[in-house]
Amino acid sequence: VNMKPRLIVEQKITAFVNKYSVFQANDDSSKGQEVALAQQKRLAFKEKVIFYSDGTRAKIAFTFRAEKVIDVRGRYFVEDANGNLVGMFKKEFGQSLLRSTWSILDKEGTVQFTITESSTILAILRRFADFIPLVGGLFEIVLLFFRYHFVVLDSGETVHGKYTKTTLFRDHYLLSGDDTLVETVDWRVLAAVSVALDALQSR
To answer: Can you list the residues of the chain whose pLDDT is less than 50?
Structure first.
């Protein structure tokens, strides 16, 4: 599969807000132009998350919001600056009991791709590391780095993208994908999902 670096997501945590910056990725996986910036109060991701085009926050790039505020199992709507729906995503809670799994949906709600943890073994270890005496702490350090390695699959289980954590202690992520992925899914949906995989992972 001819995958190329597409988006880089960086999170900065402060006492009261989470800041997410989304950059275009260069072919060598370095940061290109910043295309979206969000700043959200801690624990407020059930509300609408607004992404601005740059640090001046003068222009909205896109937003995402929960379909139903009280239902964490619901879909998330990704909308353009005018409130027009460009796509959706949702967490698949049944499948996520073993491996964290999300779906990317089109505007009609049809599943286009599935995002799931790439290693079942690591997913299981992460869930049970706390119960392993003595070595549990060591596992936690290892799992810090491997925690967020996801693959993007179509219905035929063909890999079209990868989402990887690129730094050990800071939340920096790289989304790589082939032409099929980026031509099928609006970049704003891919960016929103990339942030959600970090911000909403434990919900």
So the answer is: 136, 203
